[in-house]
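job 3f2a | input accepted
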Amino acid sequence: MTAKKSIGREIWLAVRPILLTIGIIVGIAAALFGVADVVCNSTIERWTPIYPNSEVVTLEYNFIRPRGMGVTKMTLHSPDDVETVRQWYLDNLDRLSKEDAGRGSGTNSWDIDEAPSGQGSLINLSSRCGQ
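job 3f2a | predicted structure (131 res):
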């Protein structure tokens, strides 16, 4: 074996464990973020569900996906009146309280307003998780 090939092999043998260690660390971090994102999404879907038959008007989020880790702000439109929508969300909160459902690691909120057109409701959902 020539000296040049021998030096290249020695360098590779020295660098390989470092690259393997970095790969393992990156893999573990990605898995932890993935699990945290799934847990956040589950909590958000439970505490601030999307109102049935509503349509997304605006959606802002600052991490991998909406309604996961990070901050999400979403506005929905429903043809239903404000009181019907508000009662649906209150019924959901009441059910979760009776189940003694844990809130998880994030914060969620909702607010219902009359649509500017006077027809239906605007539903403002926000969540913050993992920050």
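job 3f2a | The longest helix spans residues 3-47.
job 3f2a | closed
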